[in-house]
Design goal:
Elements lengths: L1 E5 L10 H12 L4 E5 H11 L7 H8 L1 H8 L8 H19 L5 E3 L4 E3 L7 H9 L7 H15 L3 E5 L3 H17 L4 E5 L1 H7 L14 E2 L5 H7 L27 E4 L2 E2 L10 H4 L5 E2 L2 H15 L3 E4 L6 H9 L6 E5 L8 H9 L2 E9 L3 H6 L6 H14 L2 E8 L6 H13 L6 E6 L2 E2 L10 E3 L8 E4 L7 H12 L3 H7 L18
Parallel strand pairs: 1-2, 1-5, 5-6, 6-7, 8-11, 11-12, 12-13, 13-14, 14-15
Antiparallel strand pairs: 3-4, 9-10, 16-18, 17-18
Length: about 500
């Protein structure tokens, strides 16, 4: 028997895809398996508590709690962005106040921060495991996991760790399980763990706490633990055991991935390339069929394609074989997206929004960073998508080694000129992956103080360092009226996870 756990805290809008794939694959192989999404359960537990603080905002949030939860879980809650924002900010107030007592913990609907413990320091994670009773979610997870251990008597507990915001609680849960049930073997995996293992000079600091650390897909390792002599040939997603109506969304959002890695895999400083992740796609026919099967089984409000970039072949297959529910995902800007007929076919297939990794509005920067994007084609693609009624969530990256303030101003100009075609913007400051071969060309220095940090500081060849980039974004880019209007459309906390429900408004 294997118990799979998704620890807090990540956005509570949809179930965890990694565990859904582990569960579906293991059950298909005949392995007894159970899951606990501690993330959504513990967040709802905190929302149900009445904070001791009696300021007017908190009192209003308590008074409207049931109404706001119902609103965020219903289609009508997404008809008016301002009403939605008010509900989400009130719910976030309750989460924040549940842990606010002058202590080091800061909680929100999308993040967990601790002023004394760092998620990128192994010694702090070990301390979180040792002092598990201090974790803000301990009251809930200790009872929930104790009951599950007693009910299922698992031989193996798998903890999935994908985001830094989960790390401290993941280790608190591991520490609790290790103390309360020493016979259980603990397996730690997930995308964040995979990135740690891929770091140069990695040496496992958790050997006395965790029985096995898994890098990459975990199905085979868990089958081995279960004593099943079978080689994985197909991974299956299953959301059957998840409380789909509990998540904060106007209906089930089902994540699905048709590939591992990225089919382009040529961008400079790409973490996928730095970690040596190979592109492993499911055939477009199989992906379209599996997405359709998920829709038939669970009737989702939205399918979330998780691929680093949905391949052109899969886009074509989806346009001809709609999955049966609205869908969105991340794509590269290609010539095909500049074709209005193709965009209309995507819209008819259920595509409501596409996330576009444009990164820069300067062709020189795009070419230097190996993005393989033609800005003239990007311009036509944005117009074609807008004309077809598909929302656009454009990602821009500032501070790359080939950029200076002049190129950043070109990005500002490009964004303003295309404002009417852009629904949402994601603005990010460049991080240099610590294991990137390209990093060897620069003088580097510690960026985040921790042995588990995935990024390094570097001496920018054009003097365009992070403080200057942030100043530019805050004082110039974001204050441009056209851009400020776009940014005001973003759903707070949930960002791209809820943006498809507002696309086109």
């Amino acid at each position: 028997m294997i118990l799979l756990i998704n620890p807090p805290l990540v956005k509570p809008s949809e179930p965890p895809p990694g565990i859904a794939r582990l569960y579906g694959t293991l059950v298909a192989a005949g392995v007894k398996c159970s899951i606990i999404d501690v993330n959504i359960e513990a967040i709802l537990h905190l929302l149900a508590k009445s904070p001791p603080d009696s300021d007017r905002w908190t009192m209003r949030a308590v008074r409207n709690r049931a109404h706001n939860l119902e609103l965020v879980r219903s289609a009508r809650g997404y008809l008016n962005l301002q009403r939605y924002k008010r509900a989400v900010f009130d719910l976030n107030r309750l989460i924040g106040k549940s842990a606010e007592s002058g202590g080091p913990v800061r909680l929100s609907l999308c993040n967990y921060q601790h002023s004394e413990l760092s998620a990128v320091r192994a010694m702090d994670l070990l301390r979180a495991a040792e002092e598990y009773q201090e974790n803000p979610f301990y009251e809930y997870f200790s009872k929930r996991i104790s009951n599950a251990l007693e009910l299922h008597s698992p031989d193996v507990v798998g903890v999935s760790l994908n985001y830094l915001s989960q790390a401290l609680t993941a280790f608190a849960i591991i520490g609790f399980i290790r103390t309360s049930c020493q016979r259980v073997r603990i397996v730690l995996g997930g995308s964040l763990v995979t990135s740690w293992v891929c770091k140069p000079g990695w040496s496992n600091p958790f050997s006395g706490l965790v029985d096995r650390i898994v890098s990459g897909p975990g199905e085979q390792a868990l089958l081995d633990f279960a004593g099943v002599n079978e080689v994985i040939r197909r991974r299956r997603f299953s959301y059957d055991p998840f409380p789909l109506r509990d998540y904060l969304a106007p209906g089930p959002i089902l994540p699905y991935s048709a590939s591992c890695g990225c089919y382009w895999n040529r961008c400079a400083f790409c973490p996928e390339k730095a970690e040596g992740n190979h592109y492993e796609p499911v055939s477009p026919e199989a992906a379209a069929r599996e997405a359709g099967e998920l829709c038939s089984a669970s009737h989702p409000a939205l399918i979330h394609f998780l691929d680093s970039a949905i391949s052109p072949a899969l886009l074509s297959k989806l346009s001809a074989n709609p999955p049966g529910a609205p869908w969105y995902g991340f794509v590269r800007v290609t010539r095909r997206l500049a074709d209005e007929d193709f965009c209309r076919a995507l819209k008819l297939s259920g595509c409501v929004m596409l996330k576009l990794g444009l990164e820069s509005g300067d062709q020189g920067v795009i070419d230097s960073e190996g993005k393989g994007i033609d800005l003239a084609i990007a311009s036509r693609a944005l117009a074609s998508l807008k004309k077809s009624g598909i929302g656009t969530y454009v990602y821009l990256l500032f501070g790359t080694p080939s950029e200076s303030v002049d190129e950043a101003l070109n990005t500002l100009d490009f964004t303003v000129r295309h404002e009417r075609f852009i629904d949402f913007l994601n603005l990010a400051v460049f991080n240099m992956p610590v294991n990137s071969p390209d990093a060897q060309r620069f003088a580097t220095f510690p960026h985040y103080g921790g042995d588990l940090s995935l990024y390094t500081g570097f001496s920018h060849p054009k003097g365009w360092d992070r403080p200057k980039v942030r100043r530019f974004l805050d004082t110039e880019f974001k204050r441009q009226p056209a851009i400020a209007r776009i940014l005001s459309h973003e759903p707070p906390f949930f960002t791209s996870n809820h943006a498809p429900f507002f696309a086109g408004q």
